[in-house]
Specification:
By secondary structure, this protein is an alpha+beta fold. The model has no long low-confidence stretch (mean pLDDT about 95). Strands 1, 2, 3, 4 and 7 form a five-stranded antiparallel β-sheet that branches. Strands 5-6 form a two-stranded antiparallel ribbon. The radius of gyration is 13 Å and the shape is globular. β3 and β4 form a beta hairpin. It has one domain. It has three helices and seven strands.
Length: about 100
């Protein structure tokens, strides 16, 4: 399963059905799959879609990447440098758990 996002809610939703969720968890296999998506750029081992959104981002002012993700209490934007621009998205890939198939 894969998507492009800068929204931590999407990551939380995917985590409910995933055994591994890249880039939250490191996986060479899932990183390789993410890199196959068109327009993917790897920065520091993390897959991003650079300039996926317009100059104002997807949400025109309110950026979901400013919200916290995970137990660290740190925003998604601070966890992933490529999200500093509102135009960029994470390329997220997941291995779906067998019990939910």
């Amino acid at each position: 399963m894969s998507t492009f996002t800068r929204n931590p809610s999407i990551l939380r939703m995917m985590a409910h059905v995933a055994s591994i969720l890249y880039p939250i968890q490191q996986s060479d296999t899932l990183r390789s799959l993410a890199a196959l998506h068109p327009s993917t750029t790897l920065i520091g081992g993390i897959a991003y879609h650079i300039h996926r959104y317009g100059e104002s981002g997807l949400f025109f002012g309110e950026d979901p990447a400013d919200r916290l993700y995970g137990a660290s209490g740190v925003s998604l934007k601070k966890q992933f440098d490529g999200l500093k621009s509102v135009r960029n998205a994470l390329v997220v890939t997941a291995e779906v758990r067998k019990d939910v198939l």
